[in-house]
């Protein structure tokens, strides 16, 4: 099942710089997208989400951009901090009535972000 | 900040045994879920639960699996007769609503079937 793809297994950035994490999806029925962060031995922690009626959502240092025509979304972290080092998961869901529901999330495989001091 | 709690953090069991994984969702949340992650693979949906019944389940959630909310706070996942391939991290999650409402996950239970 490759409906949500995170093609970069890892990313390394310098503290203070921008981190850009990418995610592609294939199912055009997806209409709600989320980013989660995961530290070892912990569960995924919700970061930020965006619905398909928007193309940008911002929360502090985190901004998610959605390009529906390209079926692509990205997470920008500015400025990056060493504490941001974790695995980042992109997830998507489709509205009930289109064969899905908002709680049946489809996850990508994750990208390991390392922020170097 | 309210959080989802799961117990135990690690469960080791023999093949064929029954296991019960326990979760306490966030108190004002109405929707509850189980997901799992087999080592090296994606996090995958198992089941959702609302109003004391299953709302949706995946093809993974066969007759060996069951969920229950035995009281007002706990939410459990039971595997009746464990198989080696059930070894995984099991995550409980909860959300306020079913639309455009993020899921909040617990720290997981690592199930090892030997």
Describe the 3D structure.
The complex is a heterodimer of chains A (117) and B (114). Chain A has strands spanning 4-5, 10-14, 19-25, 30-38, 45-51, 56-59, 62-67, 72-77, 86-94, 106-107, 111-116. In chain A, the strands form 2 sheets. In chain A, strands 2, 4, 5, 9, 10 and 11 form a 6-stranded mixed β-sheet that branches. Chain A has a 5-stranded antiparallel β-sheet with strand order 1-3-8-7-6, with no helix packed on it. The mean pLDDT of chain A is 92. Chain A contains no helices and 11 strands. By secondary structure, chain A is mostly beta strands. The relative contact order of chain A is 0.33. In chain A, strand 6 and strand 7 (62-67) form a beta hairpin. The termini of chain B are far apart. Chain B is globular. With 114 residues, chain B is an all-beta fold. The model of chain B has no long low-confidence stretch (mean pLDDT 93). Chain B has strands at 5-7, 10-13, 19-24, 31-37, 43-50, 53-57, 65-68, 75-79, 88-95, 104-105, 109-113. In chain B, strands 2, 4, 5, 6, 9, 10 and 11 form a 7-stranded mixed β-sheet that branches. Chain A binds chain B through residues 1, 32, 34, 36, 41-46, 49, 51, 89, 91, 95-96, 101-109, and chain B through 4, 6, 31, 33, 35, 41-45, 48, 55-56, 58, 91, 93, 95, 98-108.
Average of pLDDT of chain B: 93
- In N-to-C order, the SSE pattern of chain B is EEEEEEEEEEE
SS strand fraction of chain B: over 45%
Straight-line distance between termini of chain A: 36 Å
Rg of chain A (CA only): 14 Å
Tally of separate helices of chain A = 0
Mean pLDDT of chain A: 92
Structural class of chain B: mainly beta
Order of helices and strands of chain A: EEEEEEEEEEE
> How many whole angstroms does the radius of gyration of chain B measure?
13 Å
């Amino acid at each position: 099942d490759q409906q949500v793809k995170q093609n970069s297994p890892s990313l390394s950035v310098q503290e203070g710089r921008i981190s850009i994490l990418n995610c592609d999806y294939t199912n055009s029925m997806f209409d709600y997208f989320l980013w989660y962060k995961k530290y070892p031995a912990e569960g995924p922690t919700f970061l930020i989400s965006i619905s398909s009626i928007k193309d940008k959502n911002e929360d502090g240092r985190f901004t998610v951009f959605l390009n529906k025509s390209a079926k692509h979304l990205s997470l920008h972290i500015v400025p990056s901090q060493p504490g941001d080092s974790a695995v980042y998961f992109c997830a998507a869901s489709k509205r009930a009535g289109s064969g899905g529901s908002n709680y049946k999330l489809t996850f990508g495989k994750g990208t390991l972000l390392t922020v170097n001091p | 900040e309210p959080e989802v709690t799961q117990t135990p953090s690690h469960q080791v069991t023999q093949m064929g045994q029954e296991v019960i994984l326990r979760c306490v969702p966030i108190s004002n949340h109405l929707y509850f879920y189980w997901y799992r992650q087999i080592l090296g693979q994606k996090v995958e949906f198992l089941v959702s639960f609302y109003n004391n019944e299953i709302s949706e389940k995946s093809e993974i959630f066969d007759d060996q699996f069951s969920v229950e909310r035995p009281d007002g706070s706990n939410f459990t996942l039971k595997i009746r007769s464990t198989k080696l391939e059930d070894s995984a991290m099991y995550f409980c999650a909860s959300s306020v609503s079913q639309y455009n409402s993020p899921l909040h996950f617990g720290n997981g239970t690592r199930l090892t079937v030997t």
